[in-house]
């Protein structure tokens, strides 16, 4: 009977303490031209033999947090953001032509479609901040 109690206590401790490594997560801040990115999205795409699907999150006031879907390994990082641009015309069958703000990509392609950003993810909590800059040409 004593052995049974010892086994139950040991099993309970394993359950409470956890038997394996925690699922990886990543959180951080995205800056664009020195300021936190107001809104956007971030995506981690597995590379170099990293198993699993991609994972992502919304960026709000520069902050993001990915708590599910990651495995340990290397990821290519894609960052997108939008900003209001000049007004564009829109036709509505019930009203005359009206002007509405157009949303345009605010992040250069070298940080999304042509991204070369790579981030390693390890077990447990990871921190990854990204400092992006736009080309000053034409400004």
Question: Can you describe this structure?
Answer:
The structure is a single chain. The chain is mainly beta. It has a domain at 18-81 and 115-128: Carboxypeptidase-like, regulatory domain (Immunoglobulin-like, Sandwich). 12% of the residues lie in helices and 50% in strands. The chain has 1 helix and 10 strands, in the order αββββββββββ. It has one helix spanning 2-17, and strands at 25-32, 35-36, 39-47, 55-60, 63-66, 73-92, 95-105, 118-121, 125-127, 130-132. Strands 1, 2, 5, 9 and 10 form a 5-stranded mixed β-sheet that branches. Strands 3, 4, 6, 7 and 8 form a 5-stranded antiparallel β-sheet that branches. A hairpin with a 2-residue loop joins strand 6 and strand 7. It is elongated, with a radius of gyration of 23 Å.
Label this structure with key terms.
1 helix, 139 residues, elongated, Immunoglobulin-like, 10 strands, 50% strand, mainly beta, 5-stranded antiparallel sheet, 5-stranded mixed sheet
Structural class: mainly beta
CATH fold-type name of the domain at 18-81 and 115-128: Immunoglobulin-like
Multimerization status: single chain
Mean pLDDT over the residues: 82
The secondary-structure element order is: HEEEEEEEEEE
Helix fraction by DSSP (H/I, runs of at least 4): 10-25%
